[in-house]
Amino acid sequence: MPTGHASANEARWRGAVAVLDRLRREPGSTRAALARDLGLASGTATEITARLRELDLVTETAAAASGRGRPTSVLGPHPAGPLVLVAEIRHEDWRVGVAGLDGRVAVLDADRHAHRPAAVLRAVAAVADGAVDRWGRRVRAVSVVVAATVRDGRLVQASTLGWGPVDLTALAPPRGLPLLVGNDATLAGVAEARSGAAAGAGTALHLTVEVGIGGTLVVDGRPVAGATGAGGEFGHLPFGDPALRCPCGARGCWDLEVDGRAVARHLGEPPPEDPRSHLRAALARPGARDAVERITRALGTGTAGLVNALDPEVVTLGGLAGPLRRHARAAFDAAFADGLMAFRRAAPPAVRDAVHGDDGALHGAAAVGLDEVISERGLAAWAADRAG
Amino acid sequence: MPTGHASANEARWRGAVAVLDRLRREPGSTRAALARDLGLASGTATEITARLRELDLVTETAAAASGRGRPTSVLGPHPAGPLVLVAEIRHEDWRVGVAGLDGRVAVLDADRHAHRPAAVLRAVAAVADGAVDRWGRRVRAVSVVVAATVRDGRLVQASTLGWGPVDLTALAPPRGLPLLVGNDATLAGVAEARSGAAAGAGTALHLTVEVGIGGTLVVDGRPVAGATGAGGEFGHLPFGDPALRCPCGARGCWDLEVDGRAVARHLGEPPPEDPRSHLRAALARPGARDAVERITRALGTGTAGLVNALDPEVVTLGGLAGPLRRHARAAFDAAFADGLMAFRRAAPPAVRDAVHGDDGALHGAAAVGLDEVISERGLAAWAADRAG
DNA sequence: CTCTCTATGCTCGCGAGGCGAGTTTATTCG
DNA sequence: CGAATAAACTCGCCTCGCGAGCATAGAGAG
């Protein structure tokens, strides 16, 4: 069922949202193309763009001449337009950046950290506060991405970071800005689905291997986040050996079959300190070839299972999943095909390497932050803000 | 990202959609309650209801007096309002019914069948054609539910029915009515999420055991159907023994661990002709107790894995899954808890028996059919139809 | 039985967005 | 330099939603 009723105060921004959304999807669009694609009457296009210009949301600059007829203009983000603060907290470092309406992220500051939550949050909050001081009300939302399981804006399990539960609401700077918190794999998946290897796909599955397996299903550009935001923990599906207990508390987790811990186990070595670099190293170790092949098969089989269950149009592989598949392509392909339901084999979904690389999560964070800004509610608030 | 632009011609039905949607969610609402809940000005409520009455979409009848003040009226579906044809094709029988705006289904005809696709389709189509002859343009959509894997409106795998690929588009009666085709487990899940054991949950997981396991994830009342509509085939996740080949073509499928085939295997018996009734019988067989417990554990473990991965607010159990859990409650609960990630154990999602019973799929089919009718596009078409 | 009270419905003028026909404008091509 | 062309602008019109003020149907009180 549709989502309910929006007041007329918000509904009046429908046209503006449509235009800004399209602008985000296809940056550098001309106004003429835009009106054509959205089916707007030319008068309507004039009105909407005028309104958006008035509100410092877009600029119009002369387009390169393209033939006969009156030249059109190119729409772009306004230099005084709304901004989204994005922050990323990873295994060993953090970054804070700022994104404009086009989704481009400019990094403001970054540093390594020593795994102490309070100190990291302080450092990140300081940069965020500085940004709010500098840009004031132009900052409309804060979007934080962490390498951890996130639930209701709280970090509940961060094996990678080695953190316990941490409340991130301290990152919401003054002035009651909306705070969005997301998992790194989830937001990297969003980035791939919107402007990466799964662009254009209605349903996309993203899988990433770092320590264990993370991922997300993205439907129409939005992650299927579950009731508490902790969806996408595909690594804790029991695809593996039921005798193995996972640090997450469950058993037989897929996680344990695919990362550096699995390689070490298959080689009869003790569990590695840092499973991620252990796996990366294993890709170059001739002696680890069989072990790498074995975990690649586990990756392929599980991926096929998820394709059976979720029916994505495209699967994107992030982190070390891409390199893994590349190093043992035949093993992956065979396991993948073998794990598919027969009727899917004729036209299985494409499995592609992610293209956003290390910036995927940050780009995804910017994207979901902008969703907030470029929405009927968000634009109504922006307009009210500068009127009052 | 929002779904794009709707023309003004469609946008003008926003208010009407909001009202009809609420009416569907809370049948028997008074007009006053409706205006309050949707935040409509009293004048707006007057206008919208007048418009809806004008179009034969709702009726207003005097409400039971409830105290002081001017009495309000109760809104209900109009007796000359739009209808959705629903058809269900099951293992051994079929049903065709018709639903009004309140989602209530009246069965028009039903019969057993002999597993011959062409004959079944002919019979169903005949009833549907009769309905269209009788109600004409009042019939706005045809929603078909089949006990089979459905892909792009085509039936691609029907182990239950014993059918090969079948194209169901023959069921779209004349006049180009929209045809919706869905899987039975998927639509039963929709019914539970909208008006059943998962009512009110934003993210609900439905699992059902018949022959194998079917199900669906339902987000905001809509099934996560995947790229081709074949999502929700959770039974073909490799939770089981990788040595076992599944009729679907994959191996290690969860399917094989939970239904009548699994019981027979555990008892050292040959595979049953009809796994569904074999399982039902096993529930009453003292000698099958261990086997039933074993498959119930497999159900619990897999359910926990899906909870880890998808993070539903509620899990609903349909078909024989409910009875299975009831017969071996301790086994289910232990396996479920053991399979959860530790941080989920404090507040795991409720696991409830489905309440729609055998009618779930049919109710779900009516619901998704009505989504089509009660939409800006659908209402615009309805209005245009009676104007022209 | 009538008066008062109250929650609700109705009327109507207003403002806003989108539409489309007709007009104007900036370019390129001949 | 003028014709052709594609795009932008103007303006009257439509419909929706809003909200203030008015009308109304019952319940309770006397």
Automatic annotation (TrEMBL), chains A, B:
Gene3D superfamilies linked to this entry: 3.30.420.40, Winged helix-like DNA-binding domain superfamily/Winged helix DNA-binding domain
Pfam families named in the record: ROK (PF00480)
Top-rank taxon, per record: Bacteria
InterPro entries attached to this UniProt entry: ATPase_NBD, ROK, WH-like_DNA-bd_sf, WH_DNA-bd_sf
Protein family membership: Belongs to the ROK (NagC/XylR) family.
Protein name, as recorded: ROK family transcriptional regulator
Species lineage: Bacteria, Bacillati, Actinomycetota, Actinomycetes, Pseudonocardiales
